[in-house]
User: Which sequence fits this backbone?
C-alpha cells in the first residue's frame, strides 16, 4: 500500500466499470485499495457502492475510513452522516456533520446537513426550506437532490395524512421512509 493517490487513469477505468456492474466494480476497487489504501476517494466510492447494495454497516465503515483519511472531504462526511441519519441515528449524524458548519454558507453539504438536523429537531418548515436552498445550489451531485426531494415529499405526505396525530420528523421518516429509494 502506498500513501499516493490513485492515478486518474486507474480511477477513470474504475468508474467505467462501476457503471457496468457494481459487483465487478467493487472487486476492482478492492484491488486498487491494496495499492492505494490511503486514497480517501476510493474508500468513499467503496462505501457508496456498498450503500447501493444495501450493505449499510459496511458502507458506514468504508465511508468512515474516507473521513478518517481526509476529514475535510465534505461529500464523504455528509454521506457518512446521511447513512447514520437514514438508519435512525440522527444524533450520530449531527456529530459527524458538525465540521460541515465551517464550510461556506452556500455549500450544499452544509445546507443539507443543517436542514436534516432541523428536521430531526422537529423544525419541519425551516428544515425543508434549508434543504430546498441546498438543492437549488447543488449542481455537483444531482442524485443528492433526488434524495432530499424524496425526504421532503415523504415528510409532506406524512404531515398531510397524520394531521390528527402529531409525530416528530424522525418518527415520520422512520415510519414510512425505509431508505429503499435513497442512493446513498
Assistant:
Amino acid at each position: 500500500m502506498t500513501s499516493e493517490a490513485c492515478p486518474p487513469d486507474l480511477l477513470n477505468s474504475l468508474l467505467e466499470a462501476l457503471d457496468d456492474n457494481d459487483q465487478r466494480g467493487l472487486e476492482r476497487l478492492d484491488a486498487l485499495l491494496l495499492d492505494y489504501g490511503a486514497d480517501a476517494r476510493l474508500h468513499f466510492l467503496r462505501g457508496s457502492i456498498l450503500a447501493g447494495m444495501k450493505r449499510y454497516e459496511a458502507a458506514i465503515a468504508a465511508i468512515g475510513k474516507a473521513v478518517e483519511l481526509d476529514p475535510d472531504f465534505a461529500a464523504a462526511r455528509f454521506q457518512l452522516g446521511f447513512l447514520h441519519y437514514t438508519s435512525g441515528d440522527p444524533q450520530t449524524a449531527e456529530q459527524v456533520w458538525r465540521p460541515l458548519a465551517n464550510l461556506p454558507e452556500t455549500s450544499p453539504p452544509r445546507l443539507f446537513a443543517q436542514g436534516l438536523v432541523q428536521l430531526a429537531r422537529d423544525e419541519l418548515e425551516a428544515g425543508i426550506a434549508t434543504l430546498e436552498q441546498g438543492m437549488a445550489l447543488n449542481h455537483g451531485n444531482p442524485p443528492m437532490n433526488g434524495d432530499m426531494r424524496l425526504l421532503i415529499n415523504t415528510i409532506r405526505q406524512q404531515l398531510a395524512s397524520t394531521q390528527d396525530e402529531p409525530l416528530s420528523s424522525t418518527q415520520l421518516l422512520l415510519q414510512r421512509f425505509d431508505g429503499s429509494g435513497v442512493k446513498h
About this structure: The two ends are 27 Å apart (CA to CA). Confidence is low (pLDDT under 50) at residues 176-184. Residues 47 and 61 are 7 Å apart (CA to CA).
